[in-house]
Fold this protein.
Amino acid sequence: MGFNICFRVFFVIVVVNWKMNQLRETLSDYYSHISDYIRELSLVICPPYPYLDQCSKLTNQYNSRGISSLYLGAQNVGHQSSGAYTGEISAAMLKDFGVSYSLVGHMERRTIFQENTLIIKQKIICLQHAGIIPILCFGDDPTSDPLTTNTKAITETIKNTLDGLDKPSSIILAYEPGWAIGGDETPPREVLEEIFFSVRSTMTATLGQDMSRHVPLLYGGGVRENNIHRLLPCRELDGFLCGGVSLKSKTLSALLNKIVTHGSTQTKVFSPVKSG
Ligand code: PGA
């Protein structure tokens, strides 16, 4: 295995996952408090389903003021396109509300709702048919030891999930170690870089280098204002998936401010990408 110096496209994307939080009356204030920062990066807000309509209107409102980097995301999607699936929401319905991105395979979906690779793959296919970009979450089990990341198991999951997909390059990947979700600790930079290089190599082997270099890689799990400075210099990292810190517009604004102030995409224009 060697290293090639090759051009790769870098992004700064922040995806906000409110999970089962927020209420209707707080939404408008929330958007107005963070609007100062969303010119500098791409921000994807994933509200609970009942608020998609209101958040879609707020997104359009900000887009019409020239803030074109604010997007609406969903936290989940049904695994079939339509039919007798009580309680499920289809990708076409999400599209109807202006959803551009959707999380899929979040650790909480995998562990609490027993979603497996087959279901996750079906969801990705539904999203891609509807023209919605999947944000595929993957990572170590919540019970795993923080110091022993299972890179082999992770790359195997990625390979099995991406294999045979149509248009696989229209996807974002988010590494979230289960033990880090909901806490305020993150893995050391070297661990993250090892994972990202391995995942990028797997993608290159599965999708080809040209497609693989356009797939943004995010980190999620315990991203907070007080640890973001350690994550930002991480090579191969294109952005963040944020839960707890995004529940209050004040803490999210503080985080976005740090990303905008300290995050230099310029140091990341050329990056070593592993070749097989
Ligand atoms: P956290 O959640 O930022 O609270 O760790 C991240 C996630 O679950 O996506």
Observations:
- Confidence is low (pLDDT under 50) at residues 1-6, 265-276.
- Residues 17, 176, 181-182, 220-223, 241-245 surround 2-phosphoglycolic acid (CB under 6 Å).
- The radius of gyration is 18 Å.
- Strands lie at 2-7, 13-17, 42-46, 70-74, 101-104, 133-138, 172-175, 217-220, 239-242, 270-275.
